[in-house]
Structures
1.
Amino acid sequence: MVWCISALLLFLLELFTGTFYLLVISAAMLSSGLSEWLFNTSTITNMIIATAFSVVGIVIVRLWQRKHPRRNLSNPTDDTDYGQTVILIDQLNENLWQVRYRGTIWQGTFADPITLKSGDTALIIGHNGNVLNLTSAANFEKGNNL
């Protein structure tokens, strides 16, 4: 019974966070509660079941999140960062840069191939989480920003 009550409390807490992790742990605790009710398992066995289901569930959530990254689905013109200028600092790989914006270092990606160098400027056209989507000023003026 304790396992099911704990599962319910974590489920309710998950409604306020929206991360899926508490939902996974809640489901794992519910499975332990069902195991205890149906098979009269011991507390140690229930802990092992809850731990195993939690680890497997969290791995599944992480793999799903990597395949389905969050996208900024709002209208780009509603974004207060849209059209703002950043200064390119260092190229990390082909499309990923470290940029200076709002007095700190951010990461930014270019969807279009660029031939810019450190010290040049670019414009923000959106973001994926904390990674800024960038374009060159020439492409922005042409309207190739989406």
2.
Amino acid sequence: MKKVEAIIRKTKFEEVKKALNQAGIEFFTYWDVRGVGKDREERTYRGINYDTSSIERTMLSIYVRDHFLERTVTSIQTAAKTGEIGDGKIFVSEIETAYRIRTGEKGGEALYIKEEEE
């Protein structure tokens, strides 16, 4: 099992959500985050300087079986890409095991994604 974390532009969230759904990803969590990127910029509005280096993003957390990994990453990359600096990052880590609290299922069966024939 893998954990896929992605930090994407807030404006791309709906496109990424739709792409993940089409790829068979039935469940994930997300939240709004702020970060500081490489691009530093100040803007002036009505004589007041504003620092725009703090960037609003959405972070996704997705747990998948190993054979869902490539389609998950590809879906995020395709839907989130604008080609501009600040498109985001994707991180993949190994998950030792998972448990479904309600039923006690363990391992891949505890995930929401239905098993498919490979």
